[in-house]
Amino acid sequence: MNLVPEKNSDFSTTEYWDSFFTKRKATFEWYGNYENLKRLLTKYISAKDVILMSGCGNSDLSLNLYSDGFINMTSVDNSEVVIANMNNKHKNKYPGLVYEIEDILNTKYADEKFSAVIDKGTLDALMPDGEVESLTRAMKMFNEIKRILKFGGRYICVSLLQYHIAQFIFSYFSENGWIIRVCQCTEVEDSPDFNGQPVFMVVCTKVNKIPGANPVLEWNPDGLTNERLDSINDLLEIVIDTQKSVSMCFDLTKCQMEDISNNYRFEINCSQTKKPRYTIMIVESPTQKNPNKMTFAAFIVPHGREHEWLFSSEEGQDILRRNCNVDRLAIISMHRGQIYKNLKQVQGELSRLMLKIAPQGVIRRGETILFLSLEQQLGDRKIIMESKSEHSGNFVIEEVIGQKDETYRRLVFLNMPHIIQSEAKLLTENGEIKIDYSHFLSDYIPYLGLGVGILANRLNRESKILLIGLGGGVLTNLLLNAYKNVNIVALEIDLVVYKIAKEAFGLLEDNRLEVNICDGLEYICNAVKNNDKYDAVIYDVDVKDPTLGLSGPPKAFLRQDILNNVKSLIGKDGLFLLNFVCRASDVKAEILNVLKTNFKQLTSLKIAEDINRVLLAGNSVEAFDAHLLEQTAAYMNQCTKSNPLIACDVIDISALKENIEDI
Predict the structure, then answer these.
(1) Edge-to-edge strand list for the sheet holding 276-284
(2) Is 596 helix (H, G, I), strand (E, B) or coil?
């Protein structure tokens, strides 16, 4: 039995509905049954109300409301077939149920007769698209509802709120000065026959328009809290975002995501601040895709530790999933600037969402969502400074407690909040906080130091190093602590960052370090003009745009004219060292080809549990082979162990050979 019309516009014709209800006499519920809607619907009507049920069809909604005490109700439809069927069905047992043939666009009822008009799918049927014909029908219906509804009465519209419908209903009633509240019918989403399209209840309350007053627009996501919005566009944006998120959750439940990868990421915003409160990363088994068989758990990352490899890299996340012994793991990270009381509060906030993204088999088996974490506490993140820089934008300096109760101080630029710009481990000695100069966020720092060590170990004079990108000063501190015969010119474009390096990250300044606040490209060009020479040039500078796939160095530093200048600065015996961070394989190949064209020697050192690569380039005949690097590492470790500020090895020589990559 085919009940689907040939075209959408048929939904608005009496002939289609007469045919529909002739063929289908069984109850048909659009957009959920009474139990799905009862909690919200009964908030906005009372037993005293005189109610008009518009476009009632053969739904049991009128009967259910009547049985619950809402007896002053008239149900109307323009289909003679369905009205005859409903009268025959209920006239003996429920004589008080009134069903009448009426066209909601033009009724016979007196002005202001009703205190509530309920519309469950009628607007959607009358307005299948945004064409003029549909808009005209909807306008007639709204005008009629405005006429027959009492002052203070409510038009309650249950709808899918397609964009053209949402835009029209919000515009019409806000222009008439009515109060508009949009509720999300979450019980519909919890029903077993939910199809992935969220249902909304738009409650429009008739009040007098106040000249010059802003429209009253409210969003009610849970039936409890109302959020006042500034504009129709804000309300439309929330509806669209809700539709997308509900659809995504439905696809996750059914395991029918179109993305062929096994990782999905989304954010949950704070309802008050509109800023991200949680980041959810969904990690799935590549083999088990049956939604009825998949297992599921949620893992709460301790506050401030979301940058760690286990939680931030695809490989680490999959290891975490396997360690949790589930097919799908939701990895939950908390955001700086948000307040979290305890694990119980976080679980309470997210328990419903976790049910919505769990594979359907978990729900059908009646399993409780398992929340996991490394510890019973949320973790500790304390922001000690929050400010803005002209060059780098907003930033924070925060202190975070690690797994072994160590305290780490971090610089994070908020345009790239998931990347730690600089990190220092803090020590407490006799009540005084000091910097642990033996701690490095990534092995790329000691590996850059290893490149400088090649020079420091073989030159019988002081070596002159040009470092582009001071940052928090961690690399300069290592070089000054490890090698007594190096002099560093460090360039930093951002004066604020230089001050942070001194005041928060323990930048060591003596006569071997010269810091210049300037543009690195300009400095290189001027240095060549001045015939300056350096034994090594180091690029440790980041890309401010996180969408490019290249995090460092910026492409401008790899232009041919700039590379020519670098080669001029270091000569045939000097070294060119780069902290190279690139996620895009095509960009990576392009840059490596450019470097191979310019330098006879090019070696890459990979960093365990990181995408960083340290590139060593030069034009001498000496290759950066394993023997040279291991010999230099032994020399470097000897130097750092002899300095009381480090007093330990900084390079694992046993792993060094495995980290040398062919290019």
Answers:
(1) 263-269, 276-284, 328-334, 296-300, 371-373
(2) helix
Give the count of alpha carbons within 13 A of 544, CB side only. Answer: 11
Structure token digits, residue 565: 């200048």
> Which pLDDT score, from 0 to 100, does residue 106 have?
95
Pairwise CA distance, residues 139 & 189, whole Å: 30
- Phi (first) and psi of residue 554, to 5 degrees: -60, 150
Chain-centroid distance, C-alpha 515: 38
On the question of pLDDT at 15 being above 80, the answer is no
CA 485 to chain CA centroid, Å, is 47
d(CA 262, CA 193): 26
Q: Which of 147, 155, 140 is nearest to 110 (CA)?
A: 147
What's the pLDDT tens digit per position in 283-336?
999 888 898 999 999 999 988 888 888 888 888 899 999 989 999 999 999 988
- Rounded Cα gap, residues 42 and 299, in angstroms: 38
Closest CA to 358 of 348, 368, 349: 368
Structural contact between residues 339 and 381, judged by C-beta atoms closer than 8 angstroms: no
Buried b (16+ CB within 10 A) or exposed e, 99-125: bbebebbebeeeeeebbbbbbbbbbbb
Q: Is the pLDDT of residue 4 over 50?
A: no
Residue 3: its pLDDT value, please? 43
- CA nearest to 635, candidates 392, 450, 362: 450
pLDDT (tens digit per residue) in 201-251: 999 999 998 888 899 999 998 878 888 999 999 999 999 999 998 998 888
DSSP string, 128-186: SSSSHHHHHHHHHHHHHHHHHEEEEEEEEEEE---HHHHHHHHHHHHHTT-EEEEEE-H
Strand 149-159, strand 200-205: pairing: antiparallel
**Of all helices (H) and strands (E), which one includes residue 521?**
helix 520-529
Tokens of 582: 């690139």
Q: Is the peptide bond before 553 cis (omega within 30 degrees of 0)?
A: yes
> How far is the C-alpha of 112 from the C-alpha of 74, rounded, in Å?
14
Q: State the average pLDDT for the chain.
A: 89
CA distance 455 to 628: 11
Residues in Cβ contact with 396 at an 8 Å cutoff, skipping those fewer than 6 apart = 336, 383, 385, 386, 411, 412, 414
Beta bridge partners, 157, equal 119, 202
